């Protein structure tokens, strides 16, 4: 099998000194890109290096969407540094999204342009529905996680027709579970960063479990950082997320138990970063 080098190919598109110095960027969708590469590499159709091209361009589009999601939309006048960060996120997101058109057009993969463009439309439509539910405060925490995982897998799922038919069940099952892993890992990192945002599992979990007074503070946005962390510890949000991640990894092991030895080894290795995340003690949001 061809060696996996999609992150290395992506570096020249995502690593710019100005962006890295003045703003933060989303994580590279490593597990989803690696999955897509692995299954395309097993396909009978390997024309024009598509097993690398499709994971690369899909990752760039994903990073473009994720970058735009990170833009601060606060109404108050931002500081010069925050304004620069906001402008760079807009430009970087547009750049990542635009590169996929160029790369696919150069490779003559016009059909893939149409498929990915449709997927982007679906993602944006799903986000709109999700935001509407959030505005009405109709978002149970587990539903939030499930809907976020769907958003993370949608672009990559577009390439199912290029995957060998005998592999599609395994591909779709693993993509679902690794998208949940990525979602839960992202939520754990948000806890460590003490992000107080309704775009998080923590917000919806606290809103579901909190007292009437705590809910009022959450809804009014008047909860300070110290109180936020105290609520996270009180309701053991970090431990809950870690338990959920552990359960997803258990489902991956169960899926792979029916696979051959090569698949168990290859895809089993992909769980290692998530296992390390579970077993690394948190600084302020998990007990122990």
From TrEMBL:
InterPro entries: HEPPP_synth_su1. Gene3D superfamilies: 1.20.120.1450. Pfam families: HEPPP_synt_1. This is Heptaprenyl diphosphate synthase component 1. It comes from Paenibacillus medicaginis.
């Amino acid at each position: 099998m061809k060696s996996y080098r999609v992150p290395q190919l992506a570096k020249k598109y995502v690593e710019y000194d100005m962006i890295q110095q003045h703003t933060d960027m989303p994580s590279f969708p490593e597990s989803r890109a690696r999955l897509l590469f692995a299954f395309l590499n097993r396909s009978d159709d390997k024309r024009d290096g598509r097993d690398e091209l499709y994971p690369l361009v899909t990752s760039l589009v994903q990073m473009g969407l994720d970058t735009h999601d990170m833009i601060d939309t606060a109404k108050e006048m931002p500081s010069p540094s925050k304004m620069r960060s906001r402008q760079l996120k807009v430009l970087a997101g547009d750049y990542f999204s635009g590169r996929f058109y160029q790369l696919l057009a150069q490779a003559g993969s016009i059909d893939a342009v149409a498929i990915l463009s449709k997927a982007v439309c679906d993602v944006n439509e799903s986000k709109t529905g999700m935001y509407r539910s959030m505005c009405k405060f109709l978002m149970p925490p587990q539903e939030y996680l499930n809907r976020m995982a769907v958003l993370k897998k949608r672009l990559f799922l577009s390439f199912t027709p290029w995957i060998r038919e005998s592999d599609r069940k395994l591909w779709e099952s693993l993509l679902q579970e690794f998208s949940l892993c990525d979602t839960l890992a992202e939520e754990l990192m948000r806890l460590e960063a003490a992000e107080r945002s309704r775009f998080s599992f923590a917000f919806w979990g606290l809103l579901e479990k909190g007292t009437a007074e705590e809910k009022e503070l959450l809804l009014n946005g008047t909860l300070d950082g110290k109180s936020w962390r105290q609520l996270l510890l009180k309701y053991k949000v970090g431990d809950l997320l870690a338990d959920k991640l552990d359960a997803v990894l258990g489902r991956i092991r169960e899926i792979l138990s029916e696979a051959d030895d090569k698949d168990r080894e290859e895809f089993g290795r992909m769980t290692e970063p998530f296992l390390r995340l579970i077993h690394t003690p948190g600084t302020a949001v998990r007990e122990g």
